[in-house]
Amino acid sequence: MRRLKFSLPLLLIALLLQSGAAFAQTASQIESDEVKRIGSKLSCQCGSCQENLNCNMSSGQCHFCKPARTKIYQMQHDGASDAAIVASFVKEYGEKIFRQDPSSYFWMIPYLSLLVGGGVVWVVIRKMRGPQSLQPAAAGHPSAGGAPLEPEDPVYAKYRAEIERDTERLE
Q1: Is the dihedral angle over the CA atoms 59, 65, 71, 76 positive or is it negative?
Q2: Closest by alpha carbon to 69, among 105, 31, 24?
Q3: Relative orientation angle of helices 65-77 and 82-93, to the nearest 10 degrees
Q4: Tens of pLDDT, residues 40-49
């Protein structure tokens, strides 16, 4: 009897140490890459965050995520496929828990943005330059190499004459 009295406390201490080791092992298992892979496809339902089941709320101790990750681990340990696990959560919580992967056309967004931005820049430059109409070079026009035509506007003629006088003095 005396021997039983001494071994009972030792047995309880050993049991507590073993259970602590078992809980620590479970915590690392529910944080494994396999569990996180499936957790990234499911939304957290705590209402505080909009993240997946791998959320960092309260250092991974979210009241919804931790039990959900534990359930994922147990289903994986029992041999369920990823699709079966996701289907189980969708069946239990509805379609709102499922997070779809981004579209495969997501890579086009930066290029389309550049295209739209280039179009806006082109329109702004066109507006800043104003309307420009191309006129063919006529005989007698200075750009055609002929003699310049005299303007019909008297104010323009006055300024033109003044410019000619000033440039003659420079030479």
Answers
A1: negative
A2: 31
A3: 140
A4: 888 888 777 7
Residue 68 to residue 91: CA distance in whole angstroms: 14
52 forms bridges with which residues in the sheet? 43
Q: What SS3 class is residue 87?
A: helix
Q: Could you tell me the domains of the chain?
A: 18-101 (1.10.8.640)
Quick check: 41 and 99 in contact, CB under 8 A? yes
Exposure of 4 in the CB half-sphere (CA atoms within 13 A): 1
Q: Are 151 and 163 in contact (CB under 8 A)?
A: no
Sign of torsion, CA 8 9 12 17? negative
Alpha-carbon torsion (19, 23, 28, 33), positive or negative: positive
Length of the chain: 171
Distances (CA, A) of 17 to 11, 13, 25, 29, 78: 10, 6, 12, 19, 26
CB 98 within 8 A of CB 90: yes
Q: Quick: pLDDT tens for 150-167.
A: 557 788 888 888 888 888
Q: What angle do CA 49, 43, 54 make, to 5 degrees?
A: 75
